[in-house]
Automatic annotation (TrEMBL):
It comes from Pseudoalteromonas fuliginea. The lineage of its organism: Bacteria, Pseudomonadati, Pseudomonadota, Gammaproteobacteria, Alteromonadales. This is Outer membrane protein assembly factor BamE. PROSITE patterns: PROKAR_LIPOPROTEIN (PS51257). Transmembrane segments: none annotated. The gene is bamE. It comes from the Bacteria.
Amino acid sequence: MQSLKTFSLWLIVALTLSTTAGCSSWVYRINIPQGNFLEQSDVEKLRVNMTREQVIYVLGRPIAEDAFDNNTWRYVYSFNKGRKNEQHKSLVIKFENEKLVSISGDYDQPENFNTPLEQ
């Protein structure tokens, strides 16, 4: 008789836990933006041969700087909106001799990127 009560108790506990586990989708989740939010209009201001200081002035400091490659900067942005709706964007900037040489990633390269700024 004692083992039947113990079994019943464990069965109730297991059923309670399994039914409450499904309730986690009802919990409100805050939308959390992380990283560098960039717009295409910001990227349009980039030009070849810009200095690091000029790039920082236009885009701000990158969140992720490569510790092993000082010539590559990564601007990464993610926005979690709920459980399944996620947005990720990145921009990779490369320097040679302290000058901007290329950009790549989820943004379009500016039409006049290859035209240096007036010095």
